[in-house]
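Narrative summary of target 7.
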Amino acid sequence: MIRERGLKVVLVLVGLAFIAGAYLLLKSLLGQWDMVPGDQMILGIYVPMGVFLLLAARNPSANRTLILCVGWINLAHDAVMTVQWYQNPKGAPSDVLGLSILALISLALIVLAPPAPKRETTSGAGEAGMLPGAVQPRLG
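Modeled conformation, tokenized:
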């Protein structure tokens, strides 16, 4: 119960933060903000991701794979950015802070994701490759 409530809070906060990037993206595309094209691209991905995270907050269990996908995608992106920063550390210290925040968000989504649903097991013999309840055709 506490885990699910915590996950819902994280989903809403992260979703709103990602959607807030739409403001920066729009200002950049209109020429009112100087932004690196790569930043525009990633914001173009994060904004719709934020919408889907907000929708997932309604029923996290039904959106388990989406939550895990966002967590792992962000973690992979963060890892690539960290390697790039170490290769060319001319960036500001705020880059390290941003990478740390994204890593924490990623880990929170992965750790708080709902558990996998339990699969039904059928007792008794069944043909390999047959669906449960399927009828074996008679030959001959």
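Residues 2-112 form one domain.
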